[in-house]
């Protein structure tokens, strides 16, 4: 195999030929499915005659080929490394091909594959080329007509995009259904599902009066787990009408749950295919977090029907056009249906931990990359989450009304087209009359901007001077960075009154909660008429995806934690305060000095626990210490053991000092109403379980008893899982083992619950975590070909910081072994799984060498393009 070559954005050319209509016939067979394709092809009007027709195709056995009914001779076409090439074609013609493929051998889960005996497809980004020869690029949009032929007994259900228009019996116990999708679409939105599935059906009437049938298709035993997804779907449909004026455009909308799926879910037109983990819920089997995740993903895929499907991407460099916008849309939807501040806190803490780490590592890339080897490697936190943060900044910059006008303009102007990020931003610029040219740099510049801020209050003149200085560290391939347009939402909180002071900047009144715009490398903002000395509250609600440094004292932070009017920054002040204390303790641990707890953190927690909370979910977040991963993000060099020890020390010190408060909070929130995934109940459960985690951190008899009773009460998965995790993560195997055994036996039949069972054990801090992983890899419920299992066992272990980073390198070796096997089975998953090893620069020299050693060992294999690209970057 020749070395994989990068593809460049600057090489983009419109296709020479387009396909206006695609007719497909699938004759299903596990080992030898026949796919007949008839493509209605036209030369692009601007393109010269004589250009060859180039089609993509991988792992296809060509059985027949004809143009306008005339079979082609061997010398009239060529099979190439990329696919199929026909040198001479008319300006307009019908191309017929027939190929054979083997879904049962497809472990990559791209193209047509089998999962639990059923057939399903995954075509984004470039899976359709494993189904038939085709111009597999998103700027070729065609209407589709698809006939699926299957065994009437084994595959009673035959689904594809659009509407069913014909069905019938065939000889030999076969039958068929023909589907027509009237909306032109790129082939990455094609889908087919066939198998013995059962459906749950509901209905929705659009604002415009269209009656839509809603179906969720699952295996029979999962029929009781679809209610929440269906309710979420209907809420999302209504929300998109009310918020964006977007209505559904077919008479049928289907969701299918499959067990083997690389990602969360896929927005195929009219036939969304979901990882079963992203759609199935039941109070007994799914946690509150899972319920919320399902709601968010169902909404996300549904929202793609406009942001992605009706208006799609010109090329894959524009991936964030659909993903950033759609994530932003689903974030807002979830904020509207849940506790909005908690939603934002969760988003940001995840973002700052995981996306910042990506931006700081060897695979850092802009939200719109300018080259890639394997697009499958670019479904990243940067494209999705940072893309969403950029759209959020846009919304805040232009205001909701102009943003909505811009969105309307975008959907109207580009309906049925494949467009670019500039097209989207241009609509926002036109609708708002703002110049967004500097803002566009956010899309092309990788790395996390850092802002160093300092301020000075001039008592005599009532003036507060705020100086902001921005810099973006170099990232691979981008040594020099230019200043960005960064909107900073801020308040000045008066230290006497504890209130937001009115902001006057250059004679202009900004209210008490204003936005300033940083355009230059360094800018000074002079606020006048500032009546008292303030503490600035900066980047409220995380107004930009940046790291903001301000020399806050611990007193300032304690002050902001109680007085800031911005809920997000109140939480963030508490996190910053805890981080300062953790810093000292990390240093103490490294220097072998006795650890001393910072009394200010204890007092801050005491105050939090004493107050009557208005939002329990927010309080639960405020009582949660920064994760080990986030603490690590703040350190110049990561010392996993010191971080773990310091965090554990803080947790135990708080538990010892405030034991009675935690007990009281636990008792006050243990009401056991019938389970509902509603904000108030969720908040109560989070608060109760955070309190329990403190009590269990000191493992006194009362805490243990509460955890044990909560586990045995078996009330709902949120509470059971929280208790089980605490028992399994305790130092007492006499608590861990019986609970694990009971849980494992009870749920042996349920793969999604067994995933949780795997994760809980391998994320325990005890030193046997690695041995457990090895042992569990032979468990009958584990399978290396199922991505959920790989994530639950291997992926979860790689997040277990002290055990994955064992000083003997055994954690790294185990991960590399699995990655090498997955390189053959499922390259996309292999390339994702290897991520923790690529972050070797962050660790001490011994660990660096061990990690690099494993990367080198992987490099010695015959690598898939996916892994090749990641490993080359990691070792560059
Ligand atoms: N487009 C899907 C989404 O974000 C994600 C996905 C990508 C799924 C590639 C499968 C393969 O909703
Ligand atoms: Zn998406």
UniProtKB/TrEMBL annotation:
Ranges where the Peptidase M1 alanyl aminopeptidase C-terminal domain occurs: 555-876
Domain Peptidase M1 alanyl aminopeptidase Ig-like fold residue range list: 447-550
EC number(s) from the headed UniProt entry: 3.4.11.2
Matches recorded under InterPro entries: Aminopeptidase_N-like_N, Aminopeptidase_N-like_N_sf, PepN_Ig-like_sf, Peptidase_M1, Peptidase_M1_dom, Peptidase_M1_pepN, Peptidase_M1_pepN_C, Peptidase_M1_pepN_C_sf
Stored Gene3D superfamilies: 2.60.40.1840, 3.30.2010.30, Neutral Protease Domain 2, Peptidase M1, alanyl aminopeptidase, C-terminal domain, tricorn interacting facor f3 domain
One Gene Ontology MF term: alanyl aminopeptidase activity
Keywords: Aminopeptidase, Hydrolase, Metal-binding, Metalloprotease, Protease, Zinc
UniProt record similarity statement: Belongs to the peptidase M1 family.
Protein name: Aminopeptidase N
């Amino acid at each position: 195999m020749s070395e994989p070559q990068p593809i460049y954005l600057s090489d983009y050319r419109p296709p020479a030929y387009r396909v206006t209509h695609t007719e497909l016939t699938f004759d299903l067979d596990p080992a030898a499915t026949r796919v007949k394709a008839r493509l209605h092809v036209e030369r692009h009007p601007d393109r010269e005659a004589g250009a060859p027709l180039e089609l993509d195709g991988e792992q296809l056995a060509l059985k027949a080929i004809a143009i306008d009914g005339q079979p082609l001779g061997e010398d009239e076409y060529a099979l190439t490394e990329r696919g199929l090439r026909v040198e001479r074609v008319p300006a307009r013609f019908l191309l017929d091909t027939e190929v054979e493929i083997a879904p049962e051998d497809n472990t990559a889960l791209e193209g047509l594959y089998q999962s639990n005996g059923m057939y399903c497809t995954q075509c984004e980004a470039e899976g359709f080329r494993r189904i038939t020869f085709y111009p597999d690029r998103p700027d070729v949009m065609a209407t589709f007509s698809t006939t699926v032929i299957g065994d009437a007994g084994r595959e009673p259900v035959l689904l594809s995009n659009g509407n069913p228009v014909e069905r019938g019996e065939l000889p030999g116990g076969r039958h068929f259904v023909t589907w027509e999708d009237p909306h032109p679409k790129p082939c990455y939105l094609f889908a087919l599902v066939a198998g013995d599935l059962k459906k749950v059906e509901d209905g929705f009437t659009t604002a415009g009066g269209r009656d839509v049938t809603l179906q969720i298709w699952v295996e029979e035993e999962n029929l009781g787990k679809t209610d929440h997804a269906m309710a979420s779907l209907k809420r999302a449909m209504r929300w998109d009408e009310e918020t964006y004026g977007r209505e559904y455009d077919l008479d049928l909308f289907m969701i299918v749950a499959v067990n083997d799926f690389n990602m969360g879910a896929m927005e195929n037109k009219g036939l969304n295919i979901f990882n079963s983990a992203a759609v199935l819920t039941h109070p007994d089997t799914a946690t509150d977090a899972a319920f919320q995740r399902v709601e968010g993903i169902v909404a996300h895929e549904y929202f793609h029907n406009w942001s992605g499907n009706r208006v799609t991407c010109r090329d894959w460099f524009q991936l964030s056009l659909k993903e950033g916008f759609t994530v932003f849309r689903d974030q807002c939807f979830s904020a509207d249906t849940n506790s909005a501040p908690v939603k934002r806190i969760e988003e940001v803490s995840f973002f700052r931990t995981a996306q910042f780490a990506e931006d700081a590592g060897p695979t850092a890339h802009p939200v719109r990359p300018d080259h890639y080897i394997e697009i499958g490697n670019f479904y990243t936190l940067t494209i999705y989450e940072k893309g969403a943060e950029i759209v959020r900044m846009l919304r805040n910059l232009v205001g909701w009304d102009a943003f909505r006008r811009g969105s309307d303009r975008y959907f109207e102007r580009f309906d049925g087209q494949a467009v670019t990020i500039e097209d989207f931003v241009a609509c926002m610029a036109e609708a708002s009359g703002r110049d967004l040219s500097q803002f566009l740099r956010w899309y092309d510049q990788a790395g996390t901007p850092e802002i160093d801020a300092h301020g000075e209050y001039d008592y005599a003149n009532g003036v507060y001077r705020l100086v902001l200085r921005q810099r973006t560290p170099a990232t691979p391939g981008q040594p020099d960075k230019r200043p960005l347009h960064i909107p900073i939402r801020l308040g000045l909180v008066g230290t006497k009154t504890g209130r937001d002071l009115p902001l006057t900047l250059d004679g202009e009144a900004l209210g008490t909660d204003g936005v300033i715009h940083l355009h230059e490398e360094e800018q000074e903002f002079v606020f006048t008429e500032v009546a008292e000395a303030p503490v600035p509250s900066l980047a409220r609600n995380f107004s930009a995806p940046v790291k903001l440094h301000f020399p806050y004292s611990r007193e300032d932070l304690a002050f902001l934690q109680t007085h800031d009017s911005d809920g997000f920054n109140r939480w963030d002040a508490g996190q910053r305060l805890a981080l300062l204390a953790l810093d000292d303790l990390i240093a103490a641990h490294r220097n072998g000095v006795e650890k001393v707890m910072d009394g200010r953190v204890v007092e801050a927690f005491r105050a939090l626990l004493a107050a009557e909370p208005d939002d329990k979910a927010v309080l639960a977040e405020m009582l949660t210490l920064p994760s080990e991963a986030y603490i690590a993000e703040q350190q110049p060099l990561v010392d996993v053991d010191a971080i773990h020890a310091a965090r554990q020390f803080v947790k135990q010190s708080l538990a010892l000092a405030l034991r009675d408060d935690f007990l009281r909070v636990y008792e006050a929130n243990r009401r056991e109403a019938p389970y509902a995934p509603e904000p108030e109940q969720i908040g109560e459960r989070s608060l109760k379980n955070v309190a329990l985690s403190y009590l269990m951190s000191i493992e006194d008899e009362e805490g243990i008893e509460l955890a044990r009773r909560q586990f045995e009460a078996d009330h709902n998965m949120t509470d059971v899982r929280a208790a089980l995790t605490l028992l399994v993560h305790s130092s007492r195997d006499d608590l861990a083992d019986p609970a694990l055994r009971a849980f494992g036996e009870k749920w042996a039949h349920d793969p999604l619950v067994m995933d949780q069972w795997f994760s809980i054990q391998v994320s325990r801090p005890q030193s046997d975590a690695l041995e457990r992983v090895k042992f569990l890899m032979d468990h009958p419920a584990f399978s290396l070909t199922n991505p959920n299992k790989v994530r639950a066992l291997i992926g979860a272990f790689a997040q277990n910081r002290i055990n994955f980073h064992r000083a003997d390198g055994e954690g790294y070796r185990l991960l590399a072994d699995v990655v090498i096997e997955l390189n053959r089975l499922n390259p996309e998953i292999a390339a994702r799984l290897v991520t923790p090893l690529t972050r070797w620069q962050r660790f001490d020299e011994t660990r660096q060498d061990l990690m690099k050693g494993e990367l080198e060992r992987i490099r010695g294999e015959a690598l898939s393009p996916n892994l090749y690209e990641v490993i080359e970057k990691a070792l560059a």
